[in-house]
Write a sequence for this structure.
């Protein structure tokens, strides 16, 4: 880099016709300019300038070197401008990696909508069972789920952004609940058939609950099924094989359409986050920022829709309960004299 800086100083000296004038233009002292020119001449092994008390002249080698340097610096500036245009323009290819569950259920549908909205951007979307370090596999964005006590890649050149949170649900099919009963407490789960979903971020055979006073971990000692694939666990739950604790986004449609029901909703403890990691640069390319903003908005919108749906379901349930209690009171109330009077034929 010092070589390129010295070349730029040399060109300015020739243009300004002196060390002092070049120094003023560059914010340097005349001795500093003189030192850089001497270093440049030593680097290339030839004199570039003749110096007298009052004048400065290019040598033949200096004239040829100057003309080529002017062209080279112009090319470098043009190359810089082209490179910066990729920062500001919404075009080009993005390489994205996502872990399987969040990739299949959340990221892939969002990416499809993103490329429809931004046809100048192309995306290579790769999924895998384990998270990756973007510096090691050369991707622009790596997306994963992460627990609060779980560490992320710790390289100083890696940036991080939380895109959203993951809510877990305990689910079973209506048929299984009718057959085996619904657990009323977290401890009841140990007497049920359980389907265990294991991932790199939840690689444990315990399910976390909160009973209102403290956290409770229920160890699933002998699961009927253990798998690192959420589709296998979900399908087993739909088939009535037992209870499963899954990310809500993986079973959202099944809950809405009645294939699964949610259990112990007020006791489930889940605190996973959807996190994006990416190479840290002084200026984040606009297309990367655009995709991160898009994904963050998509996850926030999904969480908002879930809250609205849950609130509506709770209101309907409360209204149904109120109607039931009213009918029960009416059924148990003694009839009045007018209600007992027979109607005329």
């Amino acid at each position: 880099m010092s070589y390129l800086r010295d070349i730029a100083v040399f060109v300015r000296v020739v243009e300004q016709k002196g060390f002092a004038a070049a120094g003023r233009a560059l914010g340097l002292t005349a001795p500093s300019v003189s030192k850089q020119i001497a270093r440049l001449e030593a680097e290339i092994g030839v004199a570039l300038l003749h110096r007298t008390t009052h004048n400065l002249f290019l040598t033949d080698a200096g004239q040829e070197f100057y003309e080529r340097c002017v062209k080279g610096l112009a090319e470098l500036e043009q190359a810089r401008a082209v490179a910066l245009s990729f920062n500001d323009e919404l075009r080009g290819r993005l390489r994205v990696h996502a872990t399987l569950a969040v990739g299949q259920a959340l990221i892939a549908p969002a990416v499809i909508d993103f490329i429809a909205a931004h046809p100048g951007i192309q995306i290579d979307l790769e999924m895998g069972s384990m998270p990756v370090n973007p510096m090691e596999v050369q991707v622009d964005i790596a997306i994963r789920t992460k627990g609060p006590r779980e560490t992320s890649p710790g390289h100083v050149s890696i940036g991080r952004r939380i895109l959203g949170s993951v809510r877990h649900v305990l689910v079973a099919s209506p048929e299984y609940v009718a057959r085996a009963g619904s657990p009323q407490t977290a401890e009841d789960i140990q007497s049920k058939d359980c389907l265990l979903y294991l991932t790199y971020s939840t690689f444990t055979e315990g399910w976390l609950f909160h009973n209102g006073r403290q956290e409770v971990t229920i160890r699933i000692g002998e699961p009927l099924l253990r798998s690192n694939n959420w589709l296998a666990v979900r399908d087993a739950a739909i088939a009535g094989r037992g209870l499963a604790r899954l990310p809500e986004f993986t079973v959202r449609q099944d809950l809405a359409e009645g294939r699964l029901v949610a259990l112990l909703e007020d006791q489930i403890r889940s605190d996973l986050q959807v996190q994006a990691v990416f190479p840290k640069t002084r200026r984040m390319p606009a297309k990367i920022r655009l995709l991160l903003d898009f994904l963050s908005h998509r996850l926030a919108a999904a969480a908002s829709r879930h809250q609205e749906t849950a609130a509506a379901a709770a209101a309907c349930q409360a209204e149904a309960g109120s109607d039931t209690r009213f009918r029960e009171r009416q059924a148990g109330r003694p009839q009045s004299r007018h209600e007992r009077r027979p109607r005329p034929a």
